[in-house]
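Retry 2 of 3 after timeout on previous attempt. Resubmitting structure tokens to design endpoint.
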């Protein structure tokens, strides 16, 4: 496979050497060595700090999508009601997942190029539908938008909704996350976005209210939460943990706190602002509508009218640069620049914008 000097796919991102080399260790069996349990506990503490939560954080082996299923399968039963707040592909996907589990769903669709903004409509849906769970995506990668969470959490508390489930996969480490202040029951994260680790680990914070429901549902399966309830006390995991993956996730968290979480978030915001400004100067159109909140970790841009996505992608690759295409209704129409994690680098983005400008104007 060809390697590109300017990697800007919005995850998995380019993994720094400090994180890559952690896996080049022949660890022992995570089931039997006390060092693994110590590593797991410390990684949990770092994630709690990053998420700003006192809730337990469960770390599982598998890509970020795993913990979406973990949260849903561990707390939902056929017939349960799920209110889906959608501003894009992954927000919409929550509804498909819940429906597959036999749940009754209601989708409140704000549009792919928008962010959640009509809180009266959300409240009305909560009152009328009386859901057990509300789902949403904090940072919608295909759309390049960031959604407000606190307002939804406040409505959850006001109307006694049991669970708020929030996908923070592409936001954690690049945007402010306040799990407890936002009243989030499940905050779902992955290793391969702003944390800049390989796509092999996922994790989720679990509120006490969520744990009660997990115990009631008693789901058994690879994704099941219940077997993780007391792992830090017992040291007994439901399957052999991935020591290398946990070590890389731990290192990724360490690097963020060495930089400083606030500084890391500010770096993402600075790079994103520069990227969007250059895009506009080129005469290209940002995908989110005016008034929507653009993501600090990924910028979604309309493919230039005089080019196809395939041609744009091909020409950029010739120049040593790779960006992300898109999915579903955005496929072939919108491309994405992933300035997240190790790729939220101002010099990298400056070089990338120069190349993009040349390709767009000279081809």
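Retry 2 succeeded. Sequence:
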């Amino acid at each position: 496979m060809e390697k590109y000097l300017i990697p800007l796919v919005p995850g998995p991102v380019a993994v720094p050497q400090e994180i890559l080399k952690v896996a080049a260790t022949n660890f022992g069996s995570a089931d039997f060595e006390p060092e693994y349990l110590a590593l797991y506990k410390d990684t949990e503490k770092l994630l709690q700090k990053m998420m700003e939560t006192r809730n337990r954080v469960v770390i599982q082996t598998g890509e970020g999508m795993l913990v979406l299923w973990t949260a849903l399968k561990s707390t939902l039963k056929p017939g349960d009601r799920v209110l889906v707040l959608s501003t894009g592909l992954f927000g919409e996907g929550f509804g498909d997942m819940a429906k597959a589990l036999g749940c009754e769903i209601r989708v409140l669709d704000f549009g792919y190029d928008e962010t959640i903004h009509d809180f009266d409509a959300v409240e009305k849906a909560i009152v009328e539908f009386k859901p057990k769970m509300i789902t949403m995506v904090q940072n919608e990668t295909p759309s390049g938008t960031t959604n407000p969470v606190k307002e939804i959490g406040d409505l959850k508390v006001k109307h006694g909704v049991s669970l708020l489930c929030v996908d923070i996969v592409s936001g954690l480490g690049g945007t402010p996350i306040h799990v407890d202040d936002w009243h989030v029951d499940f905050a779902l994260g992955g290793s391969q976005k702003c944390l800049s680790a390989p796509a092999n680990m996922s994790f989720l914070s679990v509120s006490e209210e969520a744990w009660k429901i997990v115990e009631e549902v008693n789901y058994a399966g690879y994704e099941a939460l219940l077997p993780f309830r007391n792992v830090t006390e017992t040291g007994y995991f439901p399957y052999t943990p991935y020591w290398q993956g946990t070590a890389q996730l731990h290192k990724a968290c360490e690097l963020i706190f060495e930089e400083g979480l606030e500084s890391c978030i500010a770096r993402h915001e600075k790079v994103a602002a520069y990227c969007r400004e250059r895009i506009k100067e080129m005469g290209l159109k940002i995908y989110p509508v005016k008034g929507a909140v653009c993501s600090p970790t990924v910028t979604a841009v309309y493919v230039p009218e005089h080019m196809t996505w395939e041609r744009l992608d091909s020409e950029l690759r010739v120049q040593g640069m790779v960006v992300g295409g898109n999915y579903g209704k955005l496929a072939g129409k919108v491309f994405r620049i992933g300035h997240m994690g190790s790729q939220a680098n101002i010099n990298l983005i400056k070089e990338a914008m120069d190349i993009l400008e040349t390709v767009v104007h000279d081809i």
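Attempt log closed. The CA atoms of residues 78 and 100 lie 9 Å apart.
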